[in-house]
Amino acid sequence: xxxxxxxxxxxxxxxxxxxxxxxxxxxxxxxxxxxxxxxxxxxxxxxxxxxxxxxxxxxxxxxxxxxxxxxxxxxxxxxxxxxxxxxxxxxxxxxxxxxxxxxxxxxxxxxxxxxxxxxxxxxxxxxxxxxxxxxxxxxxxxxxxxxxxxxxxxxxxxxxxxxxxxxxxxxxxxxxxxxxxxxxxxxxxxxxxxxxxxxxxxxxxxxxxxxxxxxxxxxxxxxxxxxxxxxxxxxxxxxxxxxxxxxxxxxxxxxxxxxxx
Length: 261
Prior knowledge:
Distance between the termini: 39 Å
Number of strands: 7
Number of helices: 8
Largest sheet: 7 strands, parallel
CATH superfamily: NAD(P)-binding Rossmann-like Domain
Structural class: alpha/beta
Helix content: 40-55%
CATH topology: Rossmann fold
Radius of gyration: 18 Å
Shape: globular
């Protein structure tokens, strides 16, 4: 299997894109640490599933990525229990939809903290071990909103633009270290994060649920379908392989043609 000697840490991976990525890496033999919130029994089932699929250790860490001390402890625990992460995938994200004048300042702070600042902290804690090994992969889940904007999403768009710029910078700093740093920018993926913003968008724009899905979410995607978590996971696998060793500092769109327009 492709990654049977590797350890991968995926934030925001108890559901959605992150869980699909964890499953893809486990299927290729990687030891995995997942992170995120959720029902205790559901998470245990996921860990058992990943262990069975990979034949390698899997574990969950419930670190709150808004707290730097918990991020530090998560990386340390990964290193202690399965080994330092060879592959770090920063996938955790939150969203809140409102016009800029109505956006609660605490929501701005939360979105920047989870979507952007946490990426800085996980990266700075994981990089020294990658450099010592002379090999590493860092993949950040950005968004089509790292390249374009939409109304009522000022904090999210700012954070995702920040992720894209951070990715480029760290890629340059690690270019001769055997480490690649890239981000994947999906369009709308049918996940809990997307589903949960539908009511806010309905309220902000005065639209029905179907109108939000068809006239807002999918309006910009020429394919007129949601990106799947498994498609994002497949790209993450490729970027982590040896064939992608010269891809670094890239922002790879997976958005059904959205940003081609």
